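Table S2 (text version). Query chain:
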Amino acid sequence: MDVDCQPEDTLVSSCEEDCFDLGGVKDMRFEAEAIVNDVLFAVAEMHVSHSLNSALDVAYINVETRERNQYCLELTEAGLRVVGYAFDQVNEDMSTHYHETVYSLLDSLSPGYRDAFGNALLQRLERLKQQNGQ
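Corresponding structure-token output:
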């Protein structure tokens, strides 16, 4: 299941709309915050790393899945990828592939994320159904 949509209207919109445009370059620090806000409901814990240095072109996100597995993610223009198996850990020798979206990455790492995302989507659809039935 490769999902690239947001299940809730209250989620933060993409960086395309909210971040500063720096001559065509996205500030990855703002993009990372938007990503965290988008999927926080479906993971045990997620935050932008305060220990690792983020910059315009790279940011690091710590995520703990619902299965209690911890990862350090690297965010660049190429996408997101796992760079460590603990918070604030970067293993330069890892050669994990990039995911275009956080949804795709978490879908590949966490069945619990997949379930939470699906449940949120079903709840939203049920609310829409009830609104249209009134």
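Notes on Table S2: The helical segments are 15-18, 28-39, 102-109, 111-133. The beta strands are 21-22, 25-26, 45-48, 59-64, 70-76, 79-84.
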